[in-house]
Every structure is written in structure tokens, then in C-alpha cells.
Amino acid sequence: KVVNQLISELKPDGIFVGNVFVNGMVKGTGFDDGSGAAKIELDTVADAFVTLVQDKTAKSATVQRSGNMFS
User: Are 22 and 44 in contact (CB under 8 A)?
Assistant: First the structure.
């Protein structure tokens, strides 16, 4: 994975690398066609990024309807 390679290369320089997977459609984006299929709030995605950056122990986060998972 590219993320793992970047982690290996940049961690010694104090640079944090992580990724956020969004497993579904986000409300209010170009993918939200108004049909009600988009269930993920934009704030939920933003919170996943903030938590990942502040915590720095996980290298990835998955955002889905049922809640966020970090690993």
C-alpha cells in the first residue's frame, strides 16, 4: 500500500501519514442526488480526519453509516 510506504518514509522526519475511507455517500456532496441514499454527515467525515490527526496512533479511519472505525 502507498500509505504504508509513505508512513515508513516520512515517520522518521516527524510527518504523520494516514488515510480516511468513506464507505458510503456523504450528504450535501456531488454524490448526494437527493434520493435519501446519502446517509453520512459531512461533519462525521471531518471528525474522522481530526481524530486521526490528533490521536496519531491509528493509520486509517473508515467512515460508515454505523459509526467510525480506527485502525
Answer: no
Q: Cell numbers 518514509 label which residue? A: 9
Of 10-14, 21-25, 64-68, minimum mean pLDDT range: 64-68
What does the block give as the cell for 24? 458510503
Q: How far apart are CA 22 and CA 59, in angstroms?
A: 15
Nearest CA-CA partner of 16 in 60, 53, 69, 61: 53
Quote the cell numbers at residue 15. Answer: 510527518
The residue count of the chain comes to: 71
7-22 pLDDT tens trace: 999 999 999 998 999 9
Specify the 3-state DSSP secondary structure of 53.
helix
Find cell 486509517 and name the residue. Answer: 60
